[in-house]
């Protein structure tokens, strides 16, 4: 199993550009989520999905869109990039059940800089 | 409101024992997680507590008191490779996000020789 994969690893955008951060998992997990991590702020939830076709907003959703057409993929779209979106983005997945083993597995992250 | 607090930074020496505390206030509770994150890498799972008490896993132990909203991560026989950030996270079942985790800001541990 590859686990959770994210592409690209690094990206530089200009203000106003749009792009999609890719996330895929091969563990047949129902639950997927996107976090951003900023210095001194910890990990903050952007959007999440409890299964294919179902998505919802997290703590900081503004400026981002998501879709979940398959169980495996959960892309994050930046509609019009702003410098405030400079951050490290992590995708995570879990089985989505409330069991002791249901921890979240994180992808390697995408480091995004918006100029 | 939802709040998770942990110290920002801690330092310790090789071979020592360090305790990283975490206090939380959330609308619901269905487990507390500790993650380790090395600089430039993704968080990796360390431990999980849902009932009160101590869970031991080799050099790492985690404790939970639900009535006090308190947890700690205990690291024994510290090694240089333990220098990392340690993230406390609560699974808030009453949160709209279901199994989403609410994270503290992390504690950066520096281990010196």
Describe this structure in words.
The complex is a heterodimer of chains A (115) and B (113). Chain A is mainly β. Chain A is built from no helices and eleven strands. In chain A, strands 2, 4, 5, 6, 9, 10 and 11 form a seven-stranded mixed β-sheet that branches. A four-stranded antiparallel β-sheet of chain A has the order 1-3-8-7, with no helix packed on it. Chain B is built from no helices and eleven strands. The A-B interface holds A 31, 33, 35, 40-45, 48, 50, 56, 58, 90, 94, 96-98, 100, 102-109 and B 30-31, 33, 41-45, 48, 50, 87, 89, 91, 93, 96-106.
Shape by Cα distribution of chain A: globular
Strand content of chain A: over 45%
Strand content of chain B: over 45%
| Ends distance of chain A | 36 Å
Show the helix and strand layout.
The complex is a heterodimer of chains A (115) and B (113).
Chain A: E1 4-7, E2 10-13, E3 19-25, E4 31-38, E5 42-51, E6 54-57, E7 64-66, E8 76-78, E9 87-94, E10 105-106, E11 110-114
Parallel strand pairs in A: 2-11
Antiparallel strand pairs in A: 1-3, 3-8, 4-5, 4-9, 5-6, 7-8, 9-10, 9-11
Chain B: E1 3-5, E2 9-13, E3 18-25, E4 32-37, E5 44-49, E6 53-57, E7 60-65, E8 70-75, E9 84-91, E10 101-103, E11 107-112
Parallel strand pairs in B: 2-11
Antiparallel strand pairs in B: 1-3, 3-8, 4-5, 4-9, 6-7, 7-8, 9-10, 9-11
């Amino acid at each position: 199993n590859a686990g959770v994969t994210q592409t690209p690893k690094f990206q530089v955008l200009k203000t106003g550009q749009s792009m999609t951060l890719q996330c895929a998992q091969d563990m047949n997990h129902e639950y997927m989520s996107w976090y951003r991590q900023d210095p001194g702020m910890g990990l903050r939830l952007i959007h999440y999905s409890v299964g294919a076709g179902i998505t919802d907003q997290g703590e900081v959703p503004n400026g981002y869109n998501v879709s979940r057409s398959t169980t495996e993929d959960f892309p994050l779209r930046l509609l019009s990039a702003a410098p405030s979106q400079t951050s490290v983005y992590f995708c995570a997945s879990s089985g989505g059940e409330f069991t002791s083993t249901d921890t979240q597995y994180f992808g390697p992250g995408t480091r995004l800089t918006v100029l | 409101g939802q709040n998770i607090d942990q110290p920002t930074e801690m330092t310790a020496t090789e071979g020592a024992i360090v305790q990283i505390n975490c206090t939380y206030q959330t609308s619901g509770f269905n487990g507390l997680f500790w993650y380790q994150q090395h600089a430039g890498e993704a968080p990796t799972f360390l431990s999980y507590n849902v009932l009160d008490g101590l869970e031991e896993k080799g050099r790492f132990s985690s404790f939970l008191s639900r009535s006090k909203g308190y947890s700690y991560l205990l690291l024994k026989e510290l090694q240089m490779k333990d220098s990392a950030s340690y993230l406390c996270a609560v699974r808030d079942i009453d949160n709209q996000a279901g199994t989403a985790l609410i994270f503290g800001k992390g504690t950066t541990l520096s281990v010196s020789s």
